Every structure is written in structure tokens, then in C-alpha cells.
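Blinded run. Sample ID left blank on purpose so nobody reads anything into the name before looking at the predicted structure. Input follows.
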Amino acid sequence: MGNIFDLEAYKACARHAAAEGIVLLKNEGGLLPIAEGTKAALFGRSQFNYYKSGTGSGGMVNVDHVVSIPEGLEEAGIVLDAAVRSAYEDWLVDHPFDVGQGWAGEKWFQEEMPLDEELVQLSSKANDLAIIVIGRTAGEDKDNLVEEGSFLLTQLEQDMLDVVCRNFEKTVVLLNVGNIMDMSWLDRVDPTAVLYTWQGGQEGGNAVADVLLGKVPAGGKLSDTIAYDINDYPSTPYYGDPEENVYTEDIFVGYRYFETFAKDKVRFPFGFGLNYTTFEVKTLGLTADAVSLKGKLTISVQVSNTGDKAGTEVVQAYVEKPQGALSQPARALVGYVKTPVLAPGESWKGEIGCTWYDLASYDDSGVTGHKSAYVLEAGAYRLYVGTDVRSAEAVGALELAQTEVLEQLTEALAPRRPAERFVRNADGTLGMEAMPLRTIDPMQRRAENLPMEIPYAGDLGYKLDDVRQGRISLETFISQLSDADLITMGRGEGMNSPKVTAGSGGAIGGLSKSLDHFGIPIACVTDGPSGIRLDCGTIAVAMPNGTCLACTFNDALSEELYQWEGLELRRNRVESLLGPGMNIHRNPLNGRNFEYFSEDPLLTGRMAAAQLKGMHKYDVTGTIKHFATNNQEFKRRIANAIVSERALREIYLKGFEIAVKDGGAFCIMSTYGQLNDWYTSCSYDLLTTILRGEWKYEGLVMTDWWAAGAEEGGVGNAKNTAQMFRAQNDLFMVVEDSETNSRHDNTAEGLAQGIVTRAELQRSAMNVCRVLMRLPVMDRYLGIENDLDRELEETWSQLDQAVANVRELTLSSTEPTIIPAEEIDNGTGGTTIYQVTTPERGDYILTLKLRSTLDNPLAQLPVSVFMERNVIQSVTLTGADTEWRTIEITLPAHMMGRFYLKFFFGLGGLEIQSVEITLKESKEEYFKELIKKFFG
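Blinded prediction complete.
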């Protein structure tokens, strides 16, 4: 079969994707691309701490190496100014990277070095150009702020731009960021070229070099509108409230607002991005099938490279719907296609396809005469084709003589309390109207549609594989499960469950002896959108971030990249990646936008579908998230989003719909917060009426980790799992032990009280079983081998094997726990990992007794101790340390009571006499109170 998991080919694909996503915003005089041998001065301290991704669960990928921008440039043949680098290196001695404190405590920026003008002047005389790097991170639980060092530049960053642009004739600004940021500095300084290089994963530095030198032609397109000011975004006045956020802008998100009401507020339009060459785009024809739910529209285009360099172009198609009874934006993306690399003078023909359903609108008020339906109002549907939303030109129109109903649905997820939303007045101006309110109680709907209970049959001797082989029905199999079995099936375990791949985020399925008896396997899930997160230290490939991939507008490339990801998942025995993240970029301040794709739902949905198709090639999958409206990190666990039914269906749910229908999604994660007064984990209309009923989804839904639930309008509590299961949220993630109800959930109590029925628990168990049967874990559980898994086993490195061979260690809270010295690999590069369980959470003291066995007194012998992925302490002995040395290291309390402990020896030559771990200070009561405070 050959080496199917070719790590270098995988990294090359990630590198190319990162390069294709880079967006060139400015390139005066054709400065770029530059030639090999160009002399450049590189400014900005972020050159030394390239941001491969944002932070939190979407960025915690252990990598073997991250290619920095200077490393990539020098490898490509750019000569970097040594004096400038030396100045930075000297300054960094007293200004090291500040990691911040704890989860969500990372700094979004790093302090910039004040620049000496004389240094810059001297550098300008010795170099051809200056390159300025500005970096930002972002992540979970914390939004960007309209302040320096977050959405805005710091004063020192502005000073850097000023002094460099003043002294250099040619300047290039690289924005190593996860999301768009304030660009008002362009009005003051005038760099020659500006590029959003995003967070390009571990190959990001190489990708930057590839584009700067033209090895990959610039061709990325903005997946968001860049306005002049943060207050120009229509969502800004209604964003960031800790309790309730009304989506007043409604369907007018991003370019839909700007192109309709505020063209003058746009600095760079959606879909914009410069090339190194010029293109001519011609529309060759427009054809349309009969109007129906699946009726197709096709736009044939020809793209010609009219410049003198090779390049690619993205052709985008937009629709302007008739302004009838429904308010409509001036433009809405309905399709796009990306050309291959075209040589100068070369032409290419292609097609942009969409359906009549893509042109339809949802009537949530009945104003068209068809309430709760997708409709096409009578009138002209004008189509525009171009290379961004602003430049797209009219290419034809499709006339409908009468209003057509494409799909009659039922009211679902409408808000229950009065709120207002934007509308487009008859004269084209911005107006307001009341959101249509709910008229159907979702709990009444649930009561009318309860599933039929399958009578309990007891153990009939059937296993889950009997269902897979078609010998019995799934209903017959489920009839064997007791109430206790069904309840246990609804709990996922983690983090770092010993029942699945070391370091992973969660375990689902047969998590008890009884469930194992029925042949239900245990599947592994783990983060995330930027690559595989395994906290025990397993190395994985860090991907370009979601925004970067969206800016490629290249579905095929995303699918290819995630085929590699699928192999990597399969290799690590992970069944589902907790991603892609696909919430809408409602506002640039969302701290998690780096994980997500775009302000546009079509682009979002197509990118997610492509990633899923890639992973599905190897029978693993992604868990699309966060369903739905996770558009704010601040107070995300409780904040209530008030959104019209139309905006939900056309904007915030549409990408998920595409991922389900076109991408074949079968794992979904709900959110933490509330949507129209329901916690999404408990929203019947979201998870049953729309997802299962309308979209015909047959997969599972899991909560976000330790998510809360409640009755409508109630106070959230992570114990309210009965309310989750009745909505068809099939798994609560996560608990320490599923069988013992370690988180004290209310499912059994809710079953007894009638909050949830046994039939609903059976339904959720069947949802989980359907998913388990289609994942590779089923064959592994049954001992069925295949060529793919055998070959993937052969590709593991020595370090991979060390990580895989994790030892179990349970600490004592009353006496020292001894680790046999002979268990620890103390050779060069020796790695030994323990999965540690602490019966009492607290600070523990690790005591090591070591000595050198070498004769060379100058030898340096480092040993490092890690908890999870973080270095707790590194100690270096020398060859002269031939007497026993005692080293004490504090292992800080771990909230989960379970963690990975890793010993790493940089060089051989150390002898170990003893290793002990002793409880120093109990923090059990502290953590109990903390859990009670946050989770109830």
C-alpha cells in the first residue's frame, strides 16, 4: 500500500492551504512578489512568537516545530538584517514572552520593542525593503475589546509603523492574526504592501515566504467585510451584553448590511483580495432548471490571465432578490468557483452552480401569504458575477411571474418576547419592525410527538454488531437496555479518560460493564478546529485557522487537507474531531472567530462540508459546532441570544444545514448559552423540530463540556440533563465516571418525575448507537483488522510509541506514592508518561533523587517534568553532579483529579535513585465549591 501517512506531504498540504488563504490588500507599484536574495529588515517582536492559532481548546495542538516568519523567509533565500535581529534578541532577554495566567488568561498581544530611529535609518540604507509583523491571538471565554493590544494597535505598534514607513521607501506589513482587526492606521501611515497572513498553523512561516516570493501566487479573498470603524458594523451596538443580546441587525449581517445601507463605511469589501496579475472574467451563459427545491441554476464563466505573472482567481456569484413583501439585502452570495493557477495568457472555463433553494427566503411572519415557508417572491432575481461583492457586475436576471413556495415548514425557534429588527424600507433606507413572536409552544409540540416506548425485554443475547450485520433491528437491540443502561449511555467521560486514546477530550458509548456486555464500543472524541489536541503530549499537525481556510475559497483544497486530518485521526484512534467550528462572524470582536470561517453562511457551510468529506474518506468524522449562535465568548455560558426565526434560518443555521445535507455531518455539538430563552442543550425546536425533523439528521448531538441546561427561561445548571435528553441532546459531556453519576445529574430523577420519558432515552441511545456502528471503533472493538490500520500502526515514531504506552498511577493522599525508578526511561530523549489519578485534589510534591554517571564535568543533563502539555519545571544537572541531588517540584492541583505526568530526559547520563509523590496541601473542598459555583 505504501506509506499512506506521509507526514511531509501532509505538512506540504497544510503549508499550501495557509498560503492560499493569505489575502493581499495593498501592493503599490507591484512591489510583491520579491525575488530570492532580496535584503530585508524584519521588524516586530511577533516575528519571534508566530501565532500558529488562537488559544483555548481550538488551539492546544502539540507540534514538533512551528515555522516562524524569519525562518521561512531565510529558508526561501531572503537575506535578513542581522543588526536589527540582534537588537530584538538583546531586548527580548528582559522582555520574554508573557504567557499570562491560566485558562483564558493569555495576553492577546506581546509588548512591542521601542524602535531607535537611528537603527531604522541605518537599516534602510542597507536593505531593499522593510517587513513589519504585527501579531494577535484570541480564544475561548474572552472576547476582543476595542482597546490597544486587542482590536486596536498599541501605541508602540503605531510608533513602529510610523518610524519604519517614514524611513523605508518600500514596506510590507504582515498581520499574523486570527480575525480582522482595526485598520485605521492605514489612514496615517502608508505602507507599500499589506497582507492578512492569519494564523497559518505550524507551516505558517513557510506559507508567508511562499506568497511573498510568488511561489504561491497571492489569491486569497476576504471572508469578512473590513469596515472603517468597529462602530460601523451593524451588530456592534447589540453585542457583548453579559445577559442578553438582541440580534437587531437580523439578516443584515456583514456585507448584506454594508452593500444595502452603508457602502461608504467599507474599507475592503467581502470577497476582496489582490493578485500578482490581472484577470478578465466573462460570463458565457446562464441556465436555470424548473423552479423546485432542488432546481439548479448554472452560470458558465471564462477567466483569462491578462497579466504577466501566474495566478489564480475566485469568481463569485451574488443575487439581488426582488424587494417584495420581504425585506432583502442588496447582495447575497449564491456560489463561487476558484480557477487553477493560470499562466500569463491562459484561459479557463468553469461553472458556478446553485439551486433555487439558495435563492429562497424564509417568511417568518406570513407577509407573503405563506408563513413558515421558504418562498421565492414574484419578480426579477438579478445575478451578479465578479471577484468581490462590490465589483460584481450584472449578468442577467430570472423572472418569476408569481410567488413560489419551495418548502412549507412549521414555526420553530421564534422569540417569545418582543424585540425589534432591521428592515429595508420601500425607498431603500434602513427601518425597524417588530420580530414575529412565537405562537407555538415547543413543549406542547414535544408532547404531541413523543416517541413510542420500546418495551423492556431484558438480555436477549444480542450485541450491537447484530444490528450492524442486519440480523436484528436497532429497536430490538435497545429493548435489552435497562433504565440505568440508557442513562449511562447519555454520559460521556473525560477529560483524559483512560478508556480511550491518551490525552483526548472525551469518551462516548459503552462506558459501563453492562453496556460492554451488549457489545457497545467506546469511541474517542477530542479537539479541535486547528488540529488534534492530545494533552498527554502526542505530536500532531497544527492546521491553518478557520478564517485562513475560508479565505482560500477553495473547497477542494480544504477537503484534501482534511483527508490528511482523517488519516491522523484514524492513526491516533480518535473517531471524531471536535470541529470544524462554524459559527458566523457576527462581529469582529468575538474572541473565537479564529476557529470559525466567515460572516457568510454559504461559504461557512461549504468549507465545513468540504472538511467533513475529507475526514469521511477514512470513516472518521468531525463534530460540527457550536449549534447555534455561539457568536460571543463573554459570558457565553449564560448569555441569551434573541434572534428572529428568519435570521436563524437564513444566516445562523444555514451553514449547519449545508454541513448536514451536503457534508453528511453526523456529530453535532450544542452550545453553552441560550437561544430565545432556551439553553440550546435543551431546545426541542433546535435539536428535534429543525435538525431531526426538517433536515432529516440521523446522527448524535453532544453538549459542550459541562454545559448547563434548564427549563425555558430558567437558571442553567449542569445537573439538568433530563431536560437535555427530552430535546434530543443525546450526550452530556463530560463526567468523571458515567456509571456512578459522578456529576449528580437529574436524569434518573427526571425519568421518575416524568420530565423525560424512557422512550426519549431510548431514542438518544439509538442515535449514539447509529453513530458508533459507522465509526472505525466498531471493527477495532470486535478485533477486525484491516490494511489501513495496520499500515498506520507502522508509521508511528519512537516518541509516538512512548506517548501511547501510558502507565496508570493512582496517588495516595496519606503516604508517599513510589514510582519505581526502573520504569522511567532516562536515556537520551527518554519519555515516560503516567496517567495520574488523585483521590484527593491538591498540591503534590514530586521528589526526584538523581546523579550524573558521566566523567565529563562540563556535560549538561536536562530533565523536564510536564503536567499535561505544560512544563512544570526543567532542571539541568552537570557531569560534575556525581553525588545524589534531591529535586522537589510542586505539582499544582488539577481540577479534574486526573492528569498526565511526563518525564523527559534531554540527554542520557543521569541515574535515578528514587521518585516519590506526596500530598502537600489538599484543595478538595476548594474545588467542590468551585464546581458548585459554576455548575450548580
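Unblinding after everyone has recorded impressions. The first helix runs from residue 7 to 20.
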